[in-house]
Amino acid sequence: MNKPLEFMEIPRRVVFGPQALRIIGDVVEDFSQNRNVVVISGGVNTSRIAAEKVIPRIPGKFNIKFLKMKALSGVEAIKNFYELLSKGEKPGLLVGVGGGRVLDVTKTLAFLLDLEYISVPTSAANDGIASPSLSYLLKMDLRKEFGEKISMAKAPIAVLADTEIISQAPSVTLQSGCGDLLSKFVAIRDWELAHKLKGENYSEYAASMALMSAEIIVKRADAIRAGGEESARIVVKALIGSGVAMSIAGSSRPASGSEHLFSHALDLLSRRYGFKPAPHGLQCGIGAIMMMWLHGGDWEMIKDTLVKVGAPVTARDLGIKKEFIIKALVIAHKIRPERYTILGESGLTREAAERLARETGVI
To answer: Cβ distance 132 to 9 under 8 Å?
Structure first.
């Protein structure tokens, strides 16, 4: 019996630590296909980092185009930049400098233009820094704009994570990264369940790497709470591991399960009802507490670890009304019906959702 081929798209170079950006010139030299390099950043802070720490270190023989997202939404930036970069000579390389929003835009452009890109994260808020995955809402918007379903974009050819820069980002970004990582405990259980009940392909290698990334946060929670460069280094290392796990699996399965469906549901409800969602990783962390309870696993360990790193564990701390927590739990199974999780195919009743949130202390 012929078995299907497996494809792994992983970064060829990963560098993290203090002043990692010192070598960006060498990396650009190694991977750019021509002398045209495009640097993409976001708002004031990431644009300043790009202008002061990245662009001056790229050799003068390269022609640099500097694109700033500023207040543009992700899909607006992708549409505008795609039209701009499609004209004239094709760029040889993209360099994304920023948080999740900037890196999502960069990896999508790399996918659409068939280019390589370097990921230069300025915060450690989620595992998109080293993976081909995109935010759920951006995928929805892209489908409307481009008329095609883009579930995975493109993994970076290189990741340069300067932990001194990342350590200066707001502490909530590090807490968010921890929440995103702890959610892997649930994601792997959901994946195993789908494998057993639905025959879904399962990679022990990818699953082990994702779990190892989550376990780092549990073991080093006190050090992470202390802050500083070492804290950033721990979380970045784990996030990169999680991102690579997705590349190995060829999907976001090792890193995204029912807890992510809950977070996506909150994002959708925020658009519908006009409230501000919390950072993605914080929502996933609280989702992980509740979904691990459903699995019958050690949800208190996840909750205790979130408390240790300073992340919220209640709806009140998250800044979201309990009614929306319950609504999100009820509709979460509908977000990605093709992705089987502990929520099953019919989901939770309102009564079950409220009980779940109360039993875990979320509301």
So the answer is: yes
- Token pair in block for residue 194: 């789908």
Task: Look up residue 95 and give its two tokens.
Answer: 């360099």
How does pLDDT run across 308-344, given as a tens digit for each residue? 999 999 999 999 999 999 999 999 999 999 999 999 9
pTM, whole model, 2 decimals?
0.93
Instruction: Let me know: does 96 contact 161? Beta carbons within 8 Å.
Output: no
User: Is a pLDDT exceeding 90 seen at residue 9?
Assistant: no
From CA 152, how far away is CA 134, in angstroms rounded?
6
For residue 332, give both structure tokens.
């979460």
- 3-state class of 349 per DSSP? coil
Q: Which fold has domain 13-169?
A: Rossmann fold (3.40.50)
In contact, 243 and 267? CB cutoff 8 Å: no
What are the tens digits of pLDDT across the range 44-57? 999 999 999 999 99
Backbone φ/ψ region at 114: left (φ over 0), alpha (ψ -120 to 50), beta: left
pLDDT in tens, 84-138: 999 988 999 999 999 999 999 999 999 999 999 999 999 999 888 998 888 889 9
**Span 174-359: which CATH code?**
1.20.1090.10
By C-alpha distance, which of 207, 250, 255, 252 is closest to 9? 250
β-bridge partners, 65? 38
Domain boundaries, the chain: 13-169, 174-359
